[in-house]
Amino acid sequence: AFAWTSAAFAEPDDWKHEWRKTDFSKHSIPYAEIRSGGPPKDGIPPIDEPKIVPIADVTDIGKTEPVVGLIINGEAVAYPLRILMWHEIVNDTVAGVPVAVTFCPLCNAAIVFDRRLEGKVLDFGTTGKLRKSDLVMYDRQTESWWQQFLGEGIVGEMTGKRLKILPSRLESWEKFKARAPQGKVLA
Question: Structure pTM?
Answer without folding.
Answer: 0.93
